[in-house]
Amino acid sequence: MSENDETQYVIDGGSLLHRIHWQSGLSFGEICQRYIDSVERKYSKAIVVFDGYASGPDTKDATHQRRTKGIIGTKVSFTDRTPFKSKKEIFLANIENKQNFINLLSAKMEEKGIKTKHADADADVLIALTAIESAKTKATVLLGEDTDLLVLLLHHADVTSNSLIFKSGNVSKVNTHIKIWDILKTKLLLGEELCTFLPLIHAISGCDTTSRMFGVSKAATLKKFGEHDFLKTQAQLLCNANANDDVISAGEKTLFPLYIMVLHMKD
Are 119 and 51 in contact (CB under 8 A)? Predict the structure, then answer.
């Protein structure tokens, strides 16, 4: 895809947040300006979508705690004129600090004409759906690092839309390894039916909130679902199950044969 001034960029705010160095002594307003300068310099039209940290417990709390290595930063009261005198990682480890900084950064971005959106908690679904909605009217590029975004894009994307690209990697540095996915071509290659089950395949093969089966890789799981209609049938039953017993039964009938198939493939 040829990217030009008409391309809409959708940026994962959580990924963006970690890409700018915070220099001690700068005011919080000056730090915000560094983010704004970076976005304006690289992307002609941008929507930045942020996670929310004020709505209580979330399914990714354990993941966030692991990434911060258990650090809980001290709450800091600040304005845009307050000088930053801590370490970025420690400051952002406090969820109130993080949410308050996001609110400040978002307000500053909106003043400069950069659109922002806020999720109540984890923003992956909102990020993906924002990009998919944009692609209905214009070529769109989603910038982020989370595999969950790729899965959601392939699951929800309309193959009749305009070009939809996912760039996964460090979105702020030029010299870095970036993976580029053409979502529409990838979805056509995998097939509509398989993409319907991608969130389930992603979950049972290991994601932020679930552990993968021992010895069963994500690639092997995807391969087996593509080869066996039986697994797709069981997956459909699992997706449609409501009662706990039905979920357990359908889950067992999906996981057990998958595990046996993959182990047999290794023999």
Answer: yes
